[in-house]
Amino acid sequence: MIGYNLTGYLIFAFVTTITPGPINYMLFSYGRNYGLRDSGKLMAGIFLGFMVLLYLSGYSIAGLITKHPAMEFYFKIASSLWLLYLAVILSKINSVDTVDSGSRIGFFAGFFMQFVNPKAWIMAIGGASAFLPHFDNIHLSVFVFSMIFGMVGIPCMILWILFGDWIAKLLKSAEAHLILGIVLFCLMIISIVMIWI
């Protein structure tokens, strides 16, 4: 039973982390513009933010949101505004040659993005409700739950950045980068719409 639960949890963690979402679009855009070598701070922020989110979920923040439904509404508003801001940033970054270090998305953007990322909340709360280990010590249960999810997420983040880096090498013209920026903008807008459906 333990092996089956662990296998199911690993599959859940992989599928939810590798599929498209706001964070992965951001990683893709970052990889397209800066490559893997310069992505350490962004990935560290995303990782740490998601670990905090997993801990909050493991310690039953889902129950708190259920008891106070108004929190969900305000969370949706904050999520929508933050994703819209990132959508604009992603659409304006065209190519490596046209960006400067001031336009980079760094540690804090990656960290705080998790708290307004609906997909991350669904992953964390859904994972905690379905796959939280039941050790005698709640702290150990939350630690194991968070670390497994976090470790699965690291290679997925790297894959999205490498994908963006690969696309940057394929797309040489400014027009192609402009079209890709518009596509990323539209995908982020779809993510915002999905929050309210």
User: Termini distance?
Assistant: 36 Å
| Main sheet properties | none
Q: What is the gyration radius calculated from CA atoms?
A: 17 Å
Determine the oligomeric state from the structure: single chain
Structural class call reads mainly alpha
Residue share in β-strands? under 5%
Mean pLDDT: 78
- SSE pattern, N- to C-terminal: HHHHHHHHH
Low-confidence stretches: 95-101
What is the global morphology? globular
Helix residue percentage: over 70%
Number of E strands: 0
Compute the number of structural domains.
1
- Count of separate DSSP helical elements: 9
List its salient traits:
197 residues; mainly alpha
Fold and architecture overview:
- The protein has helices at residues 2-18, 22-34, 40-58, 61-67, 69-92, 107-113, 118-131, 138-170, 174-196.
- The termini are far apart.
- The chain has 197 residues and is an all-alpha fold.
- The chain contains 9 helices and no strands.
- The longest helix has 33 residues, at 138-170.
- It is 80% helix and 0% strand.
Secondary-structure topology with pairs:
Blueprint: H1 2-18, H2 22-34, H3 40-58, H4 61-67, H5 69-92, H6 107-113, H7 118-131, H8 138-170, H9 174-196
Quick structural gist:
The chain is mostly helical and 197 residues long. Helix content is 80%, strand content 0%. Helix 1 runs antiparallel to helix 7, helix 1 packs parallel to helix 8 and helix 2 crosses helix 8 (138-170).
